Amino acid sequence: MSSSPRPSILVVLGHPRSESLCGALADAYADGARDAGADVTVLRLGDVGFDLASREPSLQKWLGPDQEPAREPEVEQMIAAVHAADHIVLVFPQWWGTYPALLKGWIDRVILARSAFAYRAGTPLWDKLLTGRTARLIMTMDSPAWWDSLYLRRTATRSLTRATLGYCGVRTIGTTRLARVRFASAETRQRWLARAERQGRADAARTDRRRAGTKVLPREAPRGEGSTSSDTFVV
């Protein structure tokens, strides 16, 4: 984590287009966090241009104890950014019931054995190497929230909070689902952007208090959200 006196926040945009609604939400969140005094890095995966699939073995079980996989400099920089962050924010659309391949590729290339977690020899247990960090998920979707909850069982957000972030020791403090994007008015969209900015400010303050060892505020209570669709942004 960061040794800076200010909290460090990494915002990962999992939409391939920066001019999308997700891109605007990532920017709004980052603006709010910066206003609250945080050091914010916005990683726009659509602009990075790294290979989604690793061409070298990257799982510990495939390597000897003294072996390390070959990685591109961009991937090494992204791994370093994760380790430098006190708080990680994933902003992405729900496509086909889950998150885009771009974000999945980032996870597969960056959240790695020996870096984010480590297996223990002779036991099924493992060490969570990202413990102490927190996360927030911001997800847009065209379907209504009830469809995501009842039919899809919140597949996208549950897999991230439990199978990825939680597995590595990262505690998710909030999940925001912005539903029915295709049908939302411009006013609804602006409310979403304002909410993302407020969340950025609140998370920066919460992270700062946590770093100082003071009591952390409880996670944000879920709210009902509307929908969205406009000519300005792409979901």
Automatic annotation (TrEMBL):
Protein's UniProt keywords contain Zinc-finger: no
Basic and acidic residues biased stretches: 197-223
Keywords tagged on the record: Oxidoreductase
GO cellular component: cytosol
SUPFAM superfamilies referenced in this protein's UniProt entry, alphabetically: Flavoproteins
Molecular function (Gene Ontology), one example: NAD(P)H dehydrogenase (quinone) activity
Stretches with biased composition (Polar residues): 226-235
Flavodoxin-like fold domain span: 8-195
Chain intervals for the UniProt region annotation (Disordered): 197-235
InterPro entries in the record: Flavodoxin_fold, Flavoprotein-like_sf, NAD(P)H_dehydrogenase_qn
Pfam families named among the record's database cross-references: Flavodoxin_2 (PF02525)
Family per similarity comment: Belongs to the NAD(P)H dehydrogenase (quinone) family.
Name recorded for this polypeptide: Putative NADPH-quinone reductase (Modulator of drug activity B)
Native organism: Flavimobilis marinus
Lineage start: Bacteria, Bacillati, Actinomycetota, Actinomycetes, Micrococcales
